[in-house]
Amino acid sequence: MIPSNPSPTTRRRYRDNILAAYERATEDQKLRGKAWYPVAHDLAEMIGQGDARMGAGVIAALSANKSWPENVKIATRALGSGKATGHVKDAILKATRIMNGADPADVLPMGVKTGNFYRCILDPSDPEPVCIDRHAHDVAVGRTFGNAYRGLSSKSRYAALADAYRVAAARLGILPSELQAIVWVVQIESVRRADAYGYSHG
């Protein structure tokens, strides 16, 4: 795991790794990354039947350790049927509370990935939240960890990585969430290519 309170030198290395990943992005990847959260917002509003807050909350509550297509599938099913399934008990309970009218900000852990994912989907123009999932972590650290534990439940470790994205985004003149989504596209497509060719990325 990375340090929970990285040194200034280490923080600059995270920033530089993020910027390097951005530079590797094709124009198509940049366009798809910039559109990612606005598209997710529209999806949240649609499956929430006009209530983007509820839709984004349920998506975020059911997002942990799920691919995006699977996340969308189980969130859409939950909001369509009124019953959350297909995830661990804690995630299902959170999604159920949100569907029953609770404010997602009162239900989700706002200092780490799930809460930030919710905020990015709810308002793609918000300059503050950064969704640090395993791919965002690996980009910043400069190494793909595979299934290894990353320690992102630590708020200080999470904040250090989120700050690196904010600093890098400021250099580029784009939103931190846009930068995160762009390099997320770069990272997952790189990992998929590695898998296709049988390369190890653990």
Condensed summary:
With 202 residues, the protein is an all-alpha fold. The chain is built from 10 helices and no strands.
Supply the number of structural domains.
Answer: 1
The first-to-last residue Cα distance is: 13 Å
Shape: globular
What is the beta-strand fraction?
under 5%
Radius of gyration: 17 Å
Number of strands: 0
* SS-derived structural category: mainly alpha
Main sheet summary: none
Q: List low-confidence stretches.
A: 195-202
Separate helix tally: 10
- Average pLDDT over all residues: 92
**Sequence of secondary-structure elements:** HHHHHHHHHH
Q: Classify the helix fraction into a percent range.
A: 55-70%
Walk me through the topology.
Blueprint: H1 8-24, H2 27-47, H3 52-61, H4 68-81, H5 89-99, H6 104-107, H7 113-122, H8 134-141, H9 155-172, H10 176-196
Overview of the structural elements:
The protein is 66% helix and 0% strand. The chain has helices at 8-24, 27-47, 52-61, 68-81, 89-99, 104-107, 113-122, 134-141, 155-172, 176-196. The chain has one domain (8-194). It is globular, with a radius of gyration of 17 Å. The chain has 202 residues and is an all-alpha fold.
